[in-house]
């Protein structure tokens, strides 16, 4: 009796197959295709250059059919040279002198802005003409020297007068010393009528004193903002006072 022994067949050992194997194979194939088909086209001055980055070992017949077509760079270079050769050329000698036309510029001064100052009527100094009665009258001749001196409250000198300071200063030069205030000067002499008043007498009214200049005129230091001046008698019921 013959015994026959049949050996069992075994598959060759292989790596285990998992779903990740398919993903890796697909990714590897895509990268190879991208690497083979990489092309860079550079354009400069009308020249086109193509570069194929496909390795020789990886090239196949299908890849060759899909490659970028070749470009005749020599023809493009010749066309570019032709354009340059036909372009206009301007030649300038080394001794050429350049000149530029500069327009004439005229400077015009800007207009001067003038500022108009508005002055209230109360501050305007209006001096009446010096009356004829001044001539030969010692009191008025002295008083007329100070026309234009500004009013200053409490002032008793040509730097500034108030009403009684002015009359006191004028009469003092004639040796007549008056009280400092207008109220005191009211009683410094003899009260007379207007008809009897003479140029050089005092004119008194409550709160103010002046010097009579004849006719309907007087000279005084009016008020703040004004100055010593001849003007018409403005008091409604003045008192005339004769001194000495």
**Which term fits the overall shape?**
rod-shaped
Structural class: alpha+beta
**Termini, distance in Å?**
194 Å
Radius of gyration: 61 Å
Instruction: Please give the count of helices.
Output: 6
Number of strands: 10
Helix content: 10-25%
Query: How confident is the prediction overall: mean pLDDT?
Result: 73
Order of helices and strands: HEEHHHEEHHEEEEEE
Q: Which band does the percent of strand residues land in? A: 15-25%
Spatially, the strands of the biggest sheet line up as 5-10-6-7-8-9
Taking the sheet with the most strands, its summary is: 6 strands, antiparallel
The low-confidence runs, each spanning 5 or more residues with pLDDT under 50, are 30-62, 116-126
């Amino acid at each position: 009796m013959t015994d026959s022994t049949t050996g069992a067949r075994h598959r060759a050992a292989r790596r285990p197959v998992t779903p990740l194997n398919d993903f890796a194979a697909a990714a590897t194939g895509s990268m190879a295709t991208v690497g083979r088909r990489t092309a860079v086209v550079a354009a400069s001055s009308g020249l086109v250059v193509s570069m194929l980055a496909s390795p020789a070992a990886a090239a196949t017949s299908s890849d060759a059919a899909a490659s970028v077509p070749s470009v005749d760079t020599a023809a493009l270079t010749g066309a570019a040279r032709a354009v340059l050769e036909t372009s206009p050329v301007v030649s300038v000698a080394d001794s050429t002198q350049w000149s530029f036309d500069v327009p004439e510029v005229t400077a015009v001064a800007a207009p001067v802005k003038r500022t108009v100052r508005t002055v209230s009527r109360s501050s305007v100094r209006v001096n009446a003409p010096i009356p004829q009665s001044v001539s030969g009258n010692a009191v008025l001749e002295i008083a007329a020297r100070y026309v234009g001196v500004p009013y200053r409250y409490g002032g008793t000198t040509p730097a500034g007068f108030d009403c009684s300071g002015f009359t006191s200063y004028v009469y003092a030069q004639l040796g007549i010393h008056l009280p400092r205030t207008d109220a005191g000067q009211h009683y410094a002499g003899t009260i007379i009528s207007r008809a009897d008043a003479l140029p050089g007498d005092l004119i008194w009214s409550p709160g103010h004193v002046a010097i009579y200049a004849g006719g309907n005129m007087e000279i005084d230091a009016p008020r703040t903002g004004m100055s010593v001046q001849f003007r018409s008698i403005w008091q409604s019921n003045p008192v005339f006072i004769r001194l000495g």
